[in-house]
Amino acid sequence: MIAGALKGEDDIAIGNLIVSNIYNMVIVLGIPALNLPKHARLRSFRP
User: Fold this and answer.
1) Which of 14, 20, 22, 47 has the fewest CB atoms in 10 Å of its CB?
2) Which Pfam families match (predicted)?
3) Of 22, 21, 3, which is closest to residue 12 (Cα–Cα)?
């Protein structure tokens, strides 16, 4: 990301920044969600 910005390739730097943020959100939110017990998941969606 930094190398692309230093070379003047701003599009690559911005693309890398966006993709890395999306990847981090998926990992940070997705892995803990897999660890939830099934009964906790089902109970949370009931009205």
Assistant:
1) 47
2) Na_Ca_ex (PF01699)
3) 3
